[in-house]
């Protein structure tokens, strides 16, 4: 064939090589801060103070973790985070599921307005909301309390929960429900025996995702929780960065690592479903 | 028209929602005749945390009906934290802070007037110039109890080598003498002075008092305004000249906090470091063996004026506390002369109380205690402290402006423009 | 991935009498919190911007009309912060998009190492923003950080006036990559494979194939995700709060940080609400221009 034809395999190999180089660059860029965090968390204090820090700890130690627990009330904070995130995730999902069902199955002015809100709230100016929210919660004496924070988290987790759940409801074939109705099952029976089981995995994914976002959340917790005993994990983490910006690096890294673990583990579980949900949204847009 | 309605409506709506969630939460005191007071301390050095906790234990042992719970706060976040806690009605009963941080809380109505709550003994023990630091209008809103002059930590070896006159509390350097000394000590890898000015505002303003600088002035209408005239510019010019013209001051330390300069001080890189009196503790703890250092008083102004601005640490009582009298009693206990001495020693600071200040253990020559106590009567309330909006002026306008001025990025004209013009815009918002 | 197809189906017949009433019942539990804690505060916040609301209870709150906005006009620091915010938002969004697109295209190829890359690309999404900030603080640390050690420099990245903003922007890019990458990956699934092959047969180069086939297919997704990213980035808070807290000298003080301090450090609620209004308004206008421009481009 033409000379072009002979050139192709070589060119293709070059392209391939280029692609690998690029992918490698991405890998390095994405991984090196993570690797550094890991390495710092296990380094003894003397190595951290060295002027030429190495990539790997010479004498790996768990001292930093012990010290982290000594310096800040990490256990308390983890418990607070767990309470806030778990309640918020459960409440948000419980409240969102019926609405998601309505959004997916019906079309009234109300449901259309609600869907609109879901989209708009993605672009929500939280700075404009937090001040009045603070004043409202203050009126309820809920500032500096976990229930106050949970209320905020519920509303904050709702849009994405609705978004995900609506997609899951739509994925349940309408025909199944109709068939059950024809068989003489009541509406409630249909919902509990046909729709709910099909929806269950989606609901679990929604709970987990709402949990992760609440667990990771910082801004509202910073504004609303001020008593040292009530603060959540992310807020307590900032206390490691002490006076004059001098941070005790080892315990800081250790605590940061611990705070990430739950999110990371749960995220591994729901990752596929979330990317799916995101995908649905993206296509819709 | 008032907007009071607006919150009420939303509050009502939100209450419905809260009820759905399981009821409005509310804190209640148990009614068994015992009360618990929360004391939020900002002590951070191990020694002083320990002493504070021990004093609380002693109190609790002696007063089973009035328990005090120790709450640990921190200096970096205290203003934000108190603002939110006050607003949310969750503030501690006894509050540790500094006198230049109180104005906004006093005007907000969050701190109790202590005039009638404090015993005569305490009132008489602390001199009027100290009380003035926590007096707003006719009320007293905090008990000033610890304070520290800014002093010059000097490397005695380098000081001797340079052959300059060594000042003492009675005969401090003048500012030109200080500049000359810094120049003489600058040689080889050594800078005469290191100004740790990460937080330049209070350092500058307090030292400026020796040159008559006030910066904040009250007009006939009682409103505060910023001015920045010759007297206010005197000390800033000296510092900048040292950095930019003489190069007798290290440029890199401008962005450092006090503690960051200590390794360089120990290593002979800096001959002198102007620091708060309490940094002596870190020097004692961290200095390598054989390191010979001394405490010098801050330079005096052109007329030999030795006064220096200061914002003492204070103890206040929350207006919302249901047990103000008991809280005041606890403060009185904490500040008995013997206890005040312990607190002062724990923080390496000067007590305000006259009896405590006379204690022999605070007057020894060792670690410069004597130099510090001799300076105590020259300490004056910082003029900024009673100005509403001072914290915002300080953080947003003055801090970056002074930083840029000292590093040579902007000139005196621009510094003045920012401090005065931008500054007065900020203050105006608080004094409508 | 069944979800991808779900929204395509036209659901829902028009509501009829009794069934519509049932709709209310289903919607109510979610609607009340939304109205009370989201829509309500939003309106309340806008109203606050026209008052002199401050912390403290000695002075009653009064309507002051446009005074806050007039003050804002003269507040050079706020506009400086606004400029920083725009530089940050654009500086993060654009490279983030480019890098994520590259990564998504690579992940679409049949390469080894694809699996770890996919996993790594997702990880930042699961991490608390605070941890991301802390992690990069460790990387940037002037003495103990790996960056100075690797480059052999002694730069105070986050403390230097000229390096702070770029350093923070880099972290922003890193942290936001996953969402963008995943969205673009999803978009890439819309690319018709046959067209690609056909184009390749015609001898179209990689770039031509991308411009003619891939880009048109992922364009809507790209548009949506870049617009969303811009908003998210403009409103971001936690990262910069941990990394620099707005320093040095306000060079990284994003408008969110500015408004937060104004409200919750200095207690100037009304003034901070006015800032919020201005931020929202400006972002809305910018986005409208961007989207309108892009959509017009579509029609051509």
From TrEMBL, chain A:
Residues 78-270 form the ABC transmembrane type-1 domain. It is a multi-pass membrane protein. Keywords: Cell membrane, Membrane, Transmembrane, Transmembrane helix, Transport. Its main location: membrane. It is found in: Cell membrane. Pfam families: BPD_transp_1. SUPFAM superfamilies: MetI-like (SSF161098). The chain crosses the membrane at residues 20-38, 82-104, 116-137, 149-169, 190-212, 252-270. InterPro entries: BP-dep_ABC_trans_perm, MetI-like, MetI-like_sf. The keyword Transmembrane helix applies. Belongs to the binding-protein-dependent transport system permease family. This is Sugar ABC transporter permease. It comes from Streptomyces varsoviensis.
């Amino acid at each position: 064939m033409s000379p072009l034809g002979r050139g192709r395999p070589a060119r293709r190999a070059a392209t391939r090589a280029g692609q690998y180089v690029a992918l490698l660059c991405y890998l390095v860029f994405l991984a090196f801060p993570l690797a550094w965090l890991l390495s710092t968390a296990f380094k003894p204090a003397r190595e951290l103070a060295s002027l030429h820090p190495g990539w790997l700890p010479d004498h790996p130690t768990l001292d930093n973790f012990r010290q982290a627990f000594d310096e800040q009330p990490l256990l308390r904070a983890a418990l607070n985070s767990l309470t806030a995130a778990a309640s918020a995730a459960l409440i948000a999902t419980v409240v969102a599921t019926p609405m998601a069902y309505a959004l997916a199955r019906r079309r009234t002015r109300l449901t259309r307005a609600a869907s609109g809100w879901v989209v708009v709230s993605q672009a929500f100016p939280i700075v404009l909301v937090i001040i009045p929210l603070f004043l409202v919660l203050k009126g309820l004496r809920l500032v500096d309390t976990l229930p106050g924070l949970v209320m905020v988290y519920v509303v904050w987790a709702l849009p994405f929960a609705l978004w995900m759940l609506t997609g899951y409801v739509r994925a349940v074939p309408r025909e199944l429900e109709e068939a059950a109705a024809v068989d003489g099952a009541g509406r409630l029976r249909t919902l509990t025996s046909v729709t709910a089981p099909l929806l269950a995995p989606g609901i679990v994914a929604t709970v987990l995702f709402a949990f992760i976002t609440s667990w990771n959340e910082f801004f509202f917790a910073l504004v609303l929780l001020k008593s040292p005993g009530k603060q959540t994990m992310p807020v307590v983490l900032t206390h490691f960065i002490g006076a004059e910006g001098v941070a005790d690096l080892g315990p800081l890294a250790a605590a940061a690592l611990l705070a990430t673990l739950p999110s990371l583990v749960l995220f591994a579980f729901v990752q596929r479903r979330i990317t799916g949900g995101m995908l649905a949204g993206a296509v819709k847009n | 028209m008032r907007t009071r309605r607006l919150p009420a409506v939303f509050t009502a709506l939100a209450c419905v929602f809260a009820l759905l969630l399981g009821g409005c939460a509310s804190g209640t005191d148990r009614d068994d005749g015992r009360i618990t007071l929360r004391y939020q301390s900002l002590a951070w050095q191990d020694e002083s945390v320990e002493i504070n906790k021990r004093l609380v234990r002693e109190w609790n042992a002696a007063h089973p009906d009035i328990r005090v719970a120790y709450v640990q706060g921190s200096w970096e976040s205290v203003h934000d934290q108190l603002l939110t806690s006050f607003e949310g009605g969750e503030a501690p009963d006894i509050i540790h802070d500094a006198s230049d941080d109180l104005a906004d809380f006093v005007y907000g109505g969050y701190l109790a007037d202590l005039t009638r709550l404090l015993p005569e003994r305490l009132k008489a023990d602390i001199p009027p110039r100290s009380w003035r630091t926590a007096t707003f209008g006719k009320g007293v809103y905090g008990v000033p109890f610890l304070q520290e002059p800014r002093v010059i930590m000097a490397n005695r070896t380098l000081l001797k080598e340079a052959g300059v006159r060594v000042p003492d509390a009675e005969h401090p350097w003048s500012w030109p003498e200080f500049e000359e000394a810094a120049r003489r000590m600058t040689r080889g890898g050594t800078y005469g002075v290191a100004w740790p000015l990460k937080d330049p505002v209070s350092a500058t303003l307090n030292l400026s008092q020796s040159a008559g600088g006030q910066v904040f002035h009250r007009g006939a209408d009682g409103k505060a305004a910023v001015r920045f005239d010759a007297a206010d510019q005197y000390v800033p010019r000296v510092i900048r000249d040292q950095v930019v013209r003489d190069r007798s001051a290290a440029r890199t330390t401008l962005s450092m906090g006090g503690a960051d300069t200590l390794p360089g001080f120990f290593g002979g890189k800096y001959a002198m470091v102007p620091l708060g009196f309490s940094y002596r503790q870190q020097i004692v703890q961290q200095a390598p063996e054989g390191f010979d250092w001394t405490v010098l008083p801050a330079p005096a102004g052109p007329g030999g004026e030795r006064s220096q601005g200061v914002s003492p640490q204070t103890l206040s009582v929350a207006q919302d506390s249901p047990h103000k009298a008991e809280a005041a009693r606890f403060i009185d206990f904490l500040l008995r002369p013997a206890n005040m001495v312990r607190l002062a020693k724990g923080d390496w600071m000067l007590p305000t109380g006259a009896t405590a200040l006379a204690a022999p253990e605070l007057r020894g020559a060792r670690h410069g205690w004597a130099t510090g106590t001799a300076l105590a009567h020259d300490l004056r309330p910082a003029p900024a402290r009673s100005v509403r909006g001072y914290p915002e002026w300080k953080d947003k306008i003055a801090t970056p402006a002074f930083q840029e001025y000292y590093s040579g990025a902007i000139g005196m004209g621009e510094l003045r423009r920012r401090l005065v013009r931008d500054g007065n815009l900020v203050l105006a918002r608080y004094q409508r | 991935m069944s979800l991808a197809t779900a929204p395509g189906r036209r659901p829902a017949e028009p509501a009829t009498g009794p069934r519509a009433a049932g709709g209310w019942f289903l919607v109510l539990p979610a609607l009340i919190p939304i109205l009370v804690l989201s829509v309500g505060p939003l309106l309340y916040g806008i109203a606050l911007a026209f008052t002199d609301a401050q912390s403290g209870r000695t002075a009653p709150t009064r309507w002051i009309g446009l005074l806050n906005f007039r003050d804002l006009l003269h507040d050079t620091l706020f506009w400086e912060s606004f400029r920083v915010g725009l530089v940050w938002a654009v500086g993060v969004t654009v490279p983030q998009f480019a890098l994520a697109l590259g990564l998504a295209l690579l992940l679409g190829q049949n390469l080894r190492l694809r699996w770890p890359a996919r996993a790594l690309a997702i990880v930042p999404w699961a991490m608390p923003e605070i941890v991301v900030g802390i992690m990069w603080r460790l990387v940037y640390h002037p003495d103990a950080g790996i960056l100075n050690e690797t480059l052999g420099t002694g730069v105070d990245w986050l403390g230097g006036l000229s390096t702070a903003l770029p350093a923070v922007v880099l972290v922003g890019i890193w942290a936001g990559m996953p969402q963008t990458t995943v969205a673009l990956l999803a978009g890439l699934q819309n690319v018709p494979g046959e067209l690609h092959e056909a184009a390749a047969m015609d001898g179209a180069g990689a770039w031509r194939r991308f411009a003619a086939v891939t880009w048109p297919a992922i364009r809507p997704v790209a548009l949506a995700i870049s617009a969303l990213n811009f908003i998210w980035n403009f409103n971001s808070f936690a990262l910069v709060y941990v990394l620099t807290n707005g320093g040095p000298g306000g060079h990284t003080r994003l408008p969110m940080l500015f408004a937060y301090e104004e409200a919750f450090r200095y207690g100037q609620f009304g003034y901070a609400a006015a800032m919020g209004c201005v931020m929202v308004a400006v972002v809305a206008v910018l986005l409208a221009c961007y989207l309108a421009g892009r959509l017009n481009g579509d029609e051509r």
